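Researcher: Following up on the earlier apo prediction. This time include the ligand. It's magnesium ion, with the SMILES given after the sequence.
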Amino acid sequence: MTVKTMREALNDALFQEMRRDPGVIVIGEDVSGGAGGSSGSRDAAGGIFGVTKGLMGEFGDKRVIDTPISESAIIGLANGAALAGMRPVAELMFADFVGVAMDQIYNQMAKFRYMFGGKAKAPIVVRMSMGAGMNAAAQHSQTIYSMLSAVPGLKVVVPSNPADAKGMLAAAIRDDDPVIFLEHKALYSSKGEVPDGEYVAPLHGASLVQSGKDATVVALGRMVSFAGKAAAKLAADGITIDLIDLRSTSPIDEEMILESLSLTGRLVVVDESNPICSIASEIAAIAAEKGFASLRAPVARVTAPHTPVPFARELERMYVPGPDRIEAAIRKAVKGE
Amino acid sequence: MQQSRTDILKAYRQMRMIREFEERLHIENRSGEIAGFTHLYAGQEAIAVGICEHLTDRDYISSTHRGHGHCIAKGCDPRLMMHEIYGRADGLCKGRGGSMHIADIDKGMLGANGIVGGGPPIAVGAALACQARGDGSVAVSFGGGGSSNQGTVFEAMNMAVVLKLPKIFVFELNGYSEHTGEGYGIGSDLAGRTRGFGLPVFEADGFDYFSVYQAMADALEHVRAGKGPCALIAEATRYFGHFEGDPQNYRAKDEVKTLRETRDALLRFRRKVTEAKLIEAAELDAIDAEIVAFIEDCVTSARKAPAPGAEIMLSDVYADY
Ligand SMILES: Cc1ncc(C[n+]2csc(CCOP(=O)(O)OP(=O)(O)O)c2C)c(N)n1
Ligand SMILES: [Mg+2]
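Model: Understood. Below is the ligand-bound prediction.
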């Protein structure tokens, strides 16, 4: 184990998988950078968040492909290359840019296997940075996993820590279905222990971060650490929780959630996305359908409001569900006040 | 096309306003007070101003992530823009949008845009409205060289041609798209490609206000004659990084220094109008001083302006809340 940032852990996974399988290619804007620039550097960026740094040097421009600003064609490139036997990892710098490439994602890659009678596979990873936290405003801060999780054929995962970032990215690349891989931009510099050497983690399945008796708290992405902060405060008052890191929003690990709920009787879901048709809603529905008998309090959803992501620091802070709001929601679920 | 002394002084003032606004933001960005992504327009002033000096509030423009220059040139209030960039409640967009989303519909400014290629289709729609009004108004989309590779832009160009709209596609070639040279992504000759869509292309030297002004006059004559859309392509440079904080590893060390010394749009303007004895250097100096003081005051008032509260976050999602 070595302490690394999430950025480094993701970079490790890309090196690991590109060395292992010559069919793995990386495609995107500025994934190496510098082409046609006056400095002569061909690794001037390594992705705008530095995740693909150094790949160009080892794998060259046949496997590390800088593209024009053409998201629809970037995903199309991944789609066609995958159908023809490669394992592309496409990067859309910001998850918000899926809008430009949506047809290739939700009408094309998601449906190949099914529409084509099970004879096609699309082993594609689409990496995107997501989430608020950088005051990047309405078109550079969205989470989008709810929207994409609603599409049959897509898998959607959201790592919350560096070890998972490495292991899940490796697993996503090896997976034979299209995986939307969402990296929270506020977590790129967060640090954690990361296994050395070859490492692959389960792509799906939630993980129990801490256990307690009073409530089940399901969180994902950046919200996991926020929920952890809330839990630390509640522990001082004798309230303890099961904190579940969802990890994957498609599929969702119902079993772990329901089992925990059966022990705690209370469910709080923390989701950075807008509330309507959200992952929080989905989990609330699962609890209502399959865990109703366990519920001793109404399910609480802690989400962003039904607004675009605002720019100003003060507004973004209010928008993102923070540790205080999470703490209050858990307290209310437990104490009923 | 002849410009009066008043016009020339106004154009200079606008260019200086943009330059000072951006140079000052570059300094203020280091203080950590300004949140989010800020993309500065310094170095490209002649393009925004050379084009917008032809337009009135009834004409429309769409802009990009690098929008401050277009906003100022189209008549947005620089003080309210500064407040917006500082995320203040009394900013032009109530602190909700920030640098990348400044807009002022009353001024015909349809928004900076966080999505590369997001603006041109919108401007095509505005051109449709202009055509319907039949008052000679036009719509202009600004876009970088990199944006010219978006399918959305291809579609917008073709749509404008099909509908014969009064629409001008401006492409500002500043050398880079983020960390990559623009030439790498464009892949062929941009003017030729644009002509292939059926758009006549007017080319200008984007470091030279008068060159851009003339090209825009020609472009307007074309669209106002009802001949459909056209494009205006101009080369310039950006003096700063892609965004504030960009280490610019893709760029040779002295590139900007050399361009600033040899091609700077403001110096060139000054030289041209003083050598032609149209304007006294002292008049330009006075404008410079006035604008430095004005921007200083904008920054001071932005710092003191109130932060937005929850009511601003939770309103204007729809017409009724
Ligand atoms: C759809 C979309 N893709 C990518 C980006 C990220 N991005 C922002 S600006 C930019 C480069 C734009 O280059 P160019 O059009 O030349 O404009 P310039 O920055 O040079 O003004 C990129 C890739 C984006 N904002 N939107
Ligand atoms: Mg450019």
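Model: The longest strand of chain A covers residues 87-94.
Researcher: Noted. I'll compare it with the apo version next.
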